[in-house]
Structure formats: C-alpha cells, structure tokens
Specification:
The chain is 23% helix and 44% strand. It is built from 3 helices and 15 strands. The chain has helices at residues 3-14, 52-61, 223-259, and strands at residues 18-24, 29-40, 43-47, 64-71, 74-90, 96-103, 109-112, 119-120, 128-134, 149-157, 161-167, 181-188, 191-199, 204-206, 209-217.
C-alpha cells in the first residue's frame, strides 16, 4: 500500500481517532468500539476489545478482522490481521495500555457520506478564516508559528469543509500539500472554533494560487468534536439565512427594475 492511500490511517492514528473493530465469531461478526493508540513498523496499535481467548485464536489463525474509522465526510474501511496482544503495552508518553497490534492493510476503501449543502461566502460576509500547517505530532490547541500560516480566501462552506483559494508568495505556489495537517480557525460573529483539516486535490492552479477545498477532520464522538460540530452548524445555519435574505433582496430588486 502506497503512502498516499495510507495517509487517512496515519492521520486517524495521530489524533487517536475512534475505530470500530469487527471480529468474526462462530455465527456472526461482533462489532466493538475502540480507538487508535500509535503506529508500529508492522501496523497500528488499538485499544484492546473482546475476549482474550478469542483474540488469541484470531492471532493464531491470522484471520483478518474488519476495521472502520471516519475522517470528515468519509468513512474508511479495511481488513487486517491481528498480529499481537500486549496487556501492558507502553505508549510514547510512558503510559501503559491493553493493546492490539493490527497489521497494515493492503487496501483502504473510502466510502463517501452524503455531501452537505454548501453556502457561498460573499466578500462582505462576517465569516473569516485563518489556516496554518501542522506537524504530524502537533496538537490542534498548540500555538502555531507565523511561518506555518497560509494565505487563503474562503469561497464556500459546509459541515464537511470549505472551498478556498490558497495564495503563494508572488508567483510562487502556496506551500501546502494534500498530506499536510491543517489547523483552521473560523470566526463568525460571536462564534469561533478550531478544526483540523486536509486539503483536497486542487481543482485548478494559476501562478501564485490554487483553487481547492479543505476537508474537515473530526469524528463527532469526543466532547471537543461535538462542540466544534455544534458551533459549525450554527455558523453554517446563519450563513444560509444570510444567503436566503440576499436572494430575496436580489429578487425584489430585479422585480422593481422590471416594473420601472
């Protein structure tokens, strides 16, 4: 599996995202909620679920299990064998965890969820956005440096992400790739929030700029992610109402001009 196709998995492990493990049983699959712990040369560590004896049978038989995790609007699924069970696996921070080692998958399939309604962002909108590149191990709350900040213009927004224009320095292309972790700060009126994101494959490029989208990355499972989703929903709803008002005003203006 090439690095680009594995990037969603590495991103999920970096933020210790939630994951669903589907373990085969005598008659049917059993589904367990878990979360990623860390990467390994042979695969990824996850929090242990299920019965230890059953897990040992799966390790011995090398039978693949189903793995599913979410990132933004996309659900990622793959099958991988259980390689090891360590009841006291030591993590990088020194803590111990009951952990399972999953082998790297040969393929990760992306299942796109229904796309969200996009609201166009006009130049006079109150919505503002700032964006910085993040290192692989950085936390979203870490204060970024000025050198990490990217120049951008927001074109539209939905619950799944934002459409943007990235600008470089003069005729130079913007210093951003689809593999970069992005820290996005959105502000609209009294609402402010931080969301992690990834740049989508650019739609077009010109000297000094690229037009593309940023996919929001949060699972909607943790408290922070639920709060972020709630704030984002309020922002998008307000922008939808503003868009509807502008549409009605344009219609009235056009009707008045025709009547004159």
């Amino acid at each position: 599996m090439d690095h680009s196709s594995a990037q969603p998995l590495f991103d999920a492990v970096a933020r210790r995202a939630g994951v669903v493990l589907s373990l085969p049983g005598p008659q049917r699959l059993s589904h367990f909620k878990s979360y990623f712990l860390a990467t390994h040369d042979a695969g990824v560590w996850v929090k242990t679920v299920g019965d230890p004896d059953s897990l040992q049978e799966l390790i011995t038989s090398a039978a693949p299990i189903g793995v599913s995790f979410r990132g933004g609007d996309t659900r990622h699924v793959f099958a991988a064998p259980l390689l090891r069970h360590e009841p006291n696996h030591e993590l990088e921070d020194g803590a111990a965890a009951d952990a399972l080692l999953l082998g790297f998958p040969t393929e990760i399939k992306a299942v796109q969820r229904r796309s969200s309604y996009r609201v166009r962002v006009s130049p006079d909108s109150e919505l503002s956005a700032r964006c910085w590149r993040m290192s692989r191990r950085a936390r979203l709350a870490d204060r970024p440096t000025l050198a990490q900040q990217l120049s951008l213009q927001v074109c539209d927004i939905s619950l799944g992400g934002i459409g943007v224009l990235f600008f470089g320095d003069g005729a130079l292309p913007p210093k951003v790739t689809c593999e970069d972790r992005l820290r996005i700060e959105l502000s609209h009126g009294e609402h402010q929030l931080l969301i992690e994101g990834r740049m989508r494959k650019p739609d077009s490029a010109k000297p000094g700029s690229i037009r593309t989208g940023i996919r929001f990355v949060f699972l909607q499972e943790g408290i922070r992610d639920r709060k972020a989703l709630s704030q984002l929903t309020r922002i998008v709803s307000q922008l939808q109402r503003e868009e509807a008002r502008h549409r009605r005003l344009r219609k009235k203006t056009e009707q008045a001009e025709r009547a004159a």
